Amino acid sequence: MESEVYLITSNPNKAREIGQILGTELKTRAFELHEIQSLDVRVVAEDKARKAFDELGKPVIVEDTGLYIEAWRGFPGALVAWMVKSIDQARICSMVGDNRAAYAETCIAYYDGKRMHSFTGRAYGTIAQEPRGETGFGWDAIFVPEGHQRTFAELGPEEKNAISHRAKALMKLREHMKL
Known about the structure:
25% strand, Maf protein, 7-stranded mixed beta sheet, alpha/beta, globular, 7 helices
């Protein structure tokens, strides 16, 4: 990877997880970017990547993740972090109802000031009846990946990173950048 590529995130958990998945530590910069409101993680990630490049003047990697609940027609999508902060994970679990199908999607946007490259990954699963697990971050305690009985927060980092939406997107980035 180019030596002057920066991962833009103010979330140390996300930076650590991305480094674990890629097997390399990236230079990180944490600064607040005005985030557009969209359910689509690609739209949000690409917009943040352009803003981050304008701010830093160096190639950047920006990540955005959403949780898409089937019964809610894809809501909250990329707005999930706001929703978790506003009403918490337990309330999301109780509000879902009988159709608990969901998917998590990550978009990794790499922008060098000239070309945008976006890589997405999805993990299908369900919303748990209640939050479970101590590891992870964000909404890991309420998402049960397909083929598993435990939430991402119960799986632990190594097991989660082997199957997650973020890992799938990052593997595409890694192949593109020949890491």
